[in-house]
Amino acid sequence: MRTVPLEQSVALIPDGASLMIGGFMAVGTPERVIDEIVRQKKRDLTVIANDTAMPGKGIGKLVDAKLLRKVIASHIGLNPETQKQMMAGALEVELVPQGTLIERIRAGGHGLGGILTQTGVGTSVETGKQKIDVAGKTYLLEIALRADFALVQAFLADYMGNLSYALTGRNFNPVIAMAADTVIANVDHIVPVGVLSPDHIVTPAPVIDYLVANG
Asked: How far, in whole angstroms, is CA 50 from its chain's centroid?
């Protein structure tokens, strides 16, 4: 794990990269990292996240700047700009039920090929997907998700890169941290090693590649 300046952390991300971004309606989203992506004008990005927040907040800033090629999310209803770009054919949107989405990411982080779920059976969601019968019930095979980068927001980190989260920030960040080739963590506070109790560490240091320095 290396501690790097904000600018350097985002410089690692090439145009066309796939990004998993934590947060729920921008709560628990690494805003500083997103602002720097906009400043550096990274383009043609694929974002995998729960939602696209709203205009001017969180992932919504990437939508506003027209930096995204594709979004895989469970909800875009509070961001009219996402809907506008989708309807115009400028942005590809893949909507995935929330539980299915997070389990596909979890599967990607744990080395699984996918998950079986009954969600979507008998609806348009099943189009093009493999069906598997188990114990007399029909399931859809949903393929695991991984990304080039995970952009994580945490409340505390120590100098080794162990992370602890606060409130809603714990919903998606720990899961996406397991499912990307490179993990960049932005934190509110960096503390000396030993301040974090082992019981409070949610994401262990070996998972983190880069910790964004404050300041």
From this structure: 7
